[in-house]
């Protein structure tokens, strides 16, 4: 397989545009385009690179990016530099998905919810500044061609609906100069035409494709259009999720259930409340920033990781706050990546790493 073919599938799994701005996702290390096998892991440590080499895999797909912040030196003095040196010396490519998969509606937090059997799930913190709006104008006879091209390019998707648009009618005026070549009317003569206005929304990373489709299918020499950034939240993209248990549980029984399902070494939690647990918010990885969101969403419990001492006070006796461990909250992610790739790429070596890279141990 060619690396470029595989990365296309990975970008469908976790579109790079979904990643948080601080993150470092995508192809981190690459020296060859001919891929012999794929090893999927949680963390691309030096020992994981060695595992890939031993299993004849020259692409490592990891959840956490081994290269997170910039490197000024590569001397092998820390675990990051050693992993990168090992990969480069052995022509092993590294690709990370991280928050691109965190923000996906079927990604890390949906996997988390599914492991707990939560139903009626929805995104906890919908992504903002991600939905744009295109407005353009054309003749009625060109309407269907333009709209279909925009839909095919990814415009017009709202939640569970696609091919969404709005059209209105009006009149337009234009007059071409000596360099014009008008489809309608003549140069230097004011033209008044009945036109329709087409309005569609789209995810901002699709803008180039949307405009290419518009220009290729519009009947006019000069295409009039406007693009606006909206303040709409994207309900299907964002961090964390909230859902419901099939049956309410007492807090202690609930935490024991979570411990078993997520294979936790231990769980740190805020004080138990008298009420039962029914509505559960989750955020895989470090999620202290979402405590207020979980409370606002009416969650009875919020499961996440990496909570500090004073952050447990932020539960404010309004929910059960539980730190189940960073690795534990994301532990099934690599299995999901393997299953996705095996479905998309058949008859090819796609291997789940056997190494447990969780740096936290329990006594």
What does the secondary structure layout of this molecule look like, with pairings?
Blueprint: H1 3-13, E1 26-29, E2 38-43, H2 46-54, E3 59-64, H3 79-89, E4 93-96, H4 98-102, H5 108-116, E5 119-127, E6 131-138, H6 143-152, E7 166-174, E8 191-203, H7 207-217, E9 225-229, E10 234-249, H8 251-261, E11 268-269, E12 277-286, H9 291-296, E13 301-305, E14 320-323, H10 326-329, H11 333-344, E15 350-352
Parallel strand pairs: 2-3, 2-15, 3-4, 12-13, 13-14
Antiparallel strand pairs: 1-4, 5-10, 6-8, 6-9, 7-8, 10-12, 11-14
Helix pairs in contact: 2-3, 6-7
Describe the structure.
There is one protein chain. The protein has 363 residues and is α/β, with parallel strands linked by helices. Helix content is 27%, strand content 29%. It has eleven helices and 15 strands. The strands form three sheets. A six-stranded mixed β-sheet has the order 5-10-12-13-14-11. It has a five-stranded mixed β-sheet with strand order 1-4-3-2-15, sandwiched between helices. A four-stranded antiparallel β-sheet has the order 7-8-6-9, with helices on one face. Helix 9 (291-296) links the parallel strand 12 (277-286) and strand 13 (301-305). Helix 2 runs parallel beside helix 3 (79-89) and helix 6 (143-152) runs antiparallel to helix 7. The longest helix has 12 residues, at 333-344. It is globular and about 85 Å long. The protein starts with a helix and ends in an 11-residue tail after the last strand. The mean pLDDT is 95.
